[in-house]
Amino acid sequence: xxxxxxxxxxxxxxxxxxxxxxxxxxxxxxxxxxxxxxxxxxxxxxxxxxxxxxxxxxxxxxxxxxxxxxxxxxxxxxxxxxxxxxxxxxxxxxxxxxxxxxxxxxxxxxxxxxxxxxxxxxxxxxxxxxxxxxxxxxxxxxxxxxxxxxxxxxxxxxxxxxxxxxxxxxxxxxxxxxxxxxxxxxxxxxxxxxxxxxxxxxxxxxxxxxxxxxxxxxxxxxxxxxxxxxxxxxxxxxxxxxxxxxxxxxxxxxxxxxxxxxxxxxxxxxxxxxxxxxxxxxxxxxxxxxxxxxxxxxxxxxxxxxxxxxxxxxxxxxxxxxxxxxxxxxxxxxxxxxxxxxxxxxxxxx
Length: 350
Description:
A hairpin with a 5-residue loop joins strand 11 (about 135-145) and strand 12. This protein is mainly beta. It has two helices and 25 strands. It has two domains: about 5-195, Jelly Rolls (Sandwich); about 215-350, Jelly Rolls (Sandwich), CATH 2.60.120.260.
C-alpha cells in the first residue's frame, strides 16, 4: 500500500509555480485564485477553463491499479461533453490515455471509456446528477487489464458505476501518469483535495496545508529580514517578498507547525518552494526530523524559477506508526542543500 500523490493546491502562488513541478504537465488555463477559497471555504483550489484541457501528473512508480479521490465543482453546464474528468495514461497527451471517465452533460451521467473520451464507451451510470456550484467528492478505482479491467466510481461515498471484466487497456499497461481534465466550453471547473493511492480508497478526505510557525533544530539558512520562520509562513507563498537562503553544501533549515485538532491522518507531504539564484547545479532534499533522527527524501534539482518540490511520508518514519496531531506538532520539517550554489526557500508545508 502506498500513497503516491496528494495536493490541496493551497501553496501555489500561480500556475507557473504549479507547472514548474518536475512531475506535472499543465497548461495556460489553470487558475488558483478564481474562487475566493477552496472546498470548505479554505485555501485555494485548482481551476480549469475552456474545452478539453488537462493536467498530467507523473506517478513515482508505474501502476496498473489506481485508487484516486478528488473534490469537483462546476460553475455551469459546459457547452461540450468532450474532455475527461479523470484518467490513466502513458504520457502527457490525449492519445496516451488508457482509460478515463467523464460527465456527459447531455445525459448528466458518468461515463467510462477505453482510451480518451472519444474512445470506446465501456459503460455509464444511471440517474446521476452533478448539480451546479456544489462540491462533490469523486473516488475512482481503475484496473488496467485487457479482460479483467475495472472502473469503479463513487461520489460522496455512493457507488454510481462499477464495470468489471472489461478491456481497459487502449495501448499498454501499467500507467505512468494520471490526469484531471475539463469538459470546457468556456466554463469554469474546480478541483481540490486530490490524492492517488495504489491499494485502497481513503473516503472523503481533506488535504490541509500548514506553514511553519517556529524555527527548529537547524538554522543554517539566513532570513531575508526578521525571523526565519516568519519569512516562510505565507500561504500561498510570496516568493521573493521574504525568504530564507543558504549557499553551502550541508546547510539545513527546519521548523515546526501547529495543526490544531486533526482527524485520521493518511500521510503528509513536505514541500519546499525553492529556486537557485546563481548559475551552477543545485541539489536539495526535503526531510522530516522525528524522534531525534532525520529522514530524507530524494535529491531534487530546481532551476531559477520557484518550484514546489516535496516528499510524501504515509507514516512516521521513526516508528512506522500512523501520524497523529501530537506527532505532527513534534516533528520538524525542512530542507538540506546537497550541492554548492545559493538557494532560496519561501515555505515548507505539509
